[in-house]
Specification:
The complex is a heterodimer of chains A (about 200) and B (about 160). Chain A is mainly alpha-helical and about 200 residues long. In chain A, about 80% of the residues lie in helices and about 0% in strands. Chain A has one domain. The two termini of chain A are about 25 Å apart. Chain B has 2 domains: about 80 residues, Rna Polymerase Sigma Factor, Chain: A (Orthogonal Bundle); about 80 residues, Arc Repressor Mutant, subunit A (Orthogonal Bundle), CATH 1.10.10. The chains are: A mainly alpha (about 200), B mainly alpha (about 160).
Chain lengths: ~200, ~160
C-alpha cells in the first residue's frame, strides 16, 4: 500500500512543477463553456431566434394575404409554430438552470443525464410539431405561388392530401430526429449511464 | 472569495487539475480544453465552497464532476497504453511511477477516481462523500483495485 503511495508521490511532485499563469486562469473563467449542456443551450438559442423570426413572418403573411386558402394554411402554420416555439422556449429555460457541480459525482451525473435526456425528448416533440407542418404547408404555398389560379383547400381531396402528408411526415420527422440525436449524443449518454450504473451498484 | 483569491487558490492546487486531466484524457489539446473548463466550472460554483472544507477536496469534486459530465471526444485506448512511454511527458518520474500511471490510466473511470483519491490521502469516508458510493463499497473497491495494480506493477510476484 505504501509502495503505491510513494510512487504516486513522485508523480505528484512532478505535477506540482507546472504553474499556470494567473492571466490564463482569468481568461478561462470568462470563456464560453464547452460542456454538452452549454453547447445545447447555444444551439437551442439559435433555434428559438429562428422560430420567432418565422413566427413573425407568418403573422405578417396572415395580415397581408387575402386568399382564403393561403390564410388557412398560414394560420395552421402559425398555430404549430406557436406550440413549437413554446416547446423550444421551455428547453432554453431548462438549460439556463445550471447543474449544481457542488454535489457528489453520482448526483451530478444523474442530473446531467436527466437534463440531456429531457432536452432530447423536447427536441423530438418539436420535430414532430414543426417540420411536417412546415414541409407540407411550404409545399402547398409553393404550388400556389407557382400557379395562383389553383383553388386550394376547397375540395375534400385537398384536405385529405394535407392530412395524409402530415400523417406520413410526422413519424418520419420523429424517426429522423431520434436517429440524429442518437448519433450526436448517444455515446455521451451511454458514457454517463455506464458511470452512473457503476456508482449506483456501490450505493 | 474574490477573483484574485480564487486564482491564487487554483494556482496553489494546479497539480490536482493537471493530474485529473492527465488521467482521463489522452491528448494535450483535450487536456488544455478540459483545464479551461474546470477553471470555469470552479469559478461558477465557488459559492458552494464552504471555508471550513479543504479547497483541494472541493476542487477535486468540481474537477471530477466536470470531466465525467463532459462529452469526451475520444476515450483512452486501453490497449495502446501498454506500449506507450509516458516519461517524455513527466521526465522526472521513475519507471515504476510511470508504470503506476499507466496502470491507473487503464482502469475504468470510477475505479480511477477511487484509487486517485485514495493515493491523494483522502479517507474512505471522504471518497464516499465525493463519489456518492457507500463507505463500505469504497473499501471493497479499493481493495480490489490495489490488488489489481500490484499485480500489474509486479507481475513476476504473481506468477
Amino acid at each position: 500500500m505504501n509502495e503505491l503511495k510513494e510512487l504516486w508521490g513522485e508523480i505528484r511532485s512532478d505535477a506540482d512543477l507546472e504553474l499556470i499563469a494567473s492571466s490564463n486562469i482569468s481568461e478561462h473563467i470568462r470563456s464560453q463553456s464547452q460542456s454538452t449542456t452549454a453547447l445545447l443551450r447555444q444551439k437551442i438559442g439559435w433555434k428559438l431566434a429562428f422560430s420567432l423570426m418565422v413566427l413573425a413572418t407568418i403573422l405578417v403573411g396572415v395580415a397581408l394575404v387575402q386568399a382564403g386558402a393561403i390564410r388557412i394554411l398560414l394560420s395552421i402554420m402559425l398555430g404549430f409554430y406557436l406550440i413549437g416555439s413554446t416547446l423550444i422556449f421551455q428547453e432554453y429555460r431548462l438549460l439556463s438552470k445550471s447543474v449544481d457541480m457542488n454535489q457528489n459525482l453520482l448526483g451530478a451525473l444523474q442530473a446531467f443525464h436527466q437534463r440531456i435526456s429531457d432536452i432530447l425528448k423536447y427536441e423530438e416533440l418539436v420535430s414532430m410539431v414543426l417540420y411536417p407542418i412546415t414541409a407540407t404547408t411550404g409545399f402547398l404555398l409553393g404550388m400556389y405561388l407557382f400557379n395562383p389560379e389553383t383553388l386550394m383547400l376547397n375540395e375534400t381531396m385537398d384536405w385529405l392530401l394535407l392530412l395524409g402528408s402530415m400523417i406520413v411526415l410526422v413519424p418520419i420527422a420523429y424517426f429522423i430526429n431520434k436517429k440524429w440525436n442518437r448519433h450526436t449524443y448517444g455515446a455521451h449518454l451511454d458514457q454517463l449511464k455506464a458511470n452512473i450504473k457503476e456508482l449506483e451498484m456501490g450505493t | 472569495m474574490t477573483e484574485s483569491e480564487f486564482i491564487k487558490a487554483i494556482q496553489a492546487h494546479a497539480a490536482i487539475i493537471h493530474k485529473i486531466t492527465y488521467l482521463y484524457l489522452d491528448n494535450a489539446e483535450d487536456r488544455r480544453d478540459m483545464m479551461q473548463e474546470i477553471h470555469l466550472q470552479a469559478w461558477k460554483s465557488i459559492h458552494g465552497f464552504r471555508g471550513d472544507a479543504r479547497f483541494s477536496t472541493w476542487l477535486y469534486r468540481i474537477g471530477l464532476n466536470t470531466i465525467f459530465s463532459y462529452r469526451r471526444k475520444k476515450r483512452i485506448e486501453v490497449d495502446s497504453l501498454e506500449d506507450r512511454d509516458f516519461s517524455f511527458e513527466s521526465p522526472a518520474i521513475s519507471d515504476e511511477a510511470d508504470r503506476l500511471m499507466r496502470a491507473i490510466k487503464a482502469l475504468s473511470d470510477v475505479d480511477k477516481t477511487i484509487i486517485t483519491l485514495h493515493l491523494e490521502d483522502f479517507d474512505n469516508g471522504e471518497i464516499a462523500e465525493m463519489t456518492g458510493l457507500t463507505k463500505n463499497n469504497v473499501g471493497v473497491k479499493l481493495h480490489r483495485i490495489k490488488d489489481n495494480l500490484k499485480k500489474k506493477l509486479n507481475p513476476e510476484n504473481n506468477e
